[in-house]
Amino acid sequence: MSIHRIRAVAIGAAALAAGLIWAPSAARAQTDVENKLTVGIFNRPYLVQAFYHSAAWKAKLQELMNDRNDAALASDSLKVEQIDKQLMAMQTLAQQQLAGTAPLTNIYDALQGEWPAIAKEAGVDVIVEPPLYLVPGSVLVDVTPVMVRHLNKGG
């Protein structure tokens, strides 16, 4: 029985030694693999213009204009003034977004449910507006046309 134990210990030691020999090279192989990040970027001015020319935006604007006209017909000057202020604020926001001084929150919200489909269609891992730094080997893809297409879906 002691010979069998010695053989078992020897086999275990050989397996352990083989594991130690192979482990560092496997770890090295994993660190040598380049992880390429595919980054989707977009053209802000083009996206802003596309949003404010989209069917969804035109429908929202038409609804506001209809409300304003109804308020004017009802002689509700307070509501007319309120809607006029809202329309002016929307125009100011659009100009600021175009200039790059206001966030694109309303545009991002309009694409809320479309982000996974946009990324998949464009073949990107992440979508950002201006990448400040990218590791070497990263790939940039302009996803503006895909975003615009999804923005106009259903419109």
Based on DSSP secondary structure assignment, what is the total number of beta strands?
3
- Topology pattern, helix = H, strand = E: HEHHHHHEEH
Tell me the radius of gyration: 30 Å
Determine the number of helices (DSSP H or I, runs of at least 4 residues): 7
The chain-level structural class is mainly alpha
Note the gap between the termini: 82 Å
Largest sheet: 3 strands, parallel
- Give start-end ranges of low-pLDDT stretches: 12-18, 25-33
Helical content, roughly?
Answer: 55-70%
State the domain count. 2
Percentage of residues in strands: 5-15%
The rough form would be described as elongated
* Rounded average pLDDT: 83
Strand order of the largest sheet: 2-1-3
Characterization of this structure:
By secondary structure, this protein is mostly helical. It has two domains: 1-33; 36-151. It is built from seven helices and three strands. The chain has a three-stranded parallel sheet with strand order 2-1-3, with no helix packed on it. It is elongated and about 70 Å long. 8% of the residues are buried.
Reconstruct the topology from this structure.
Layout: H1 2-32, E1 38-41, H2 44-52, H3 55-73, H4 77-99, H5 105-110, H6 115-122, E2 126-128, E3 139-142, H7 144-151
Parallel strand pairs: 1-2, 1-3
Helix pairs in contact: 2-4, 2-7, 3-4
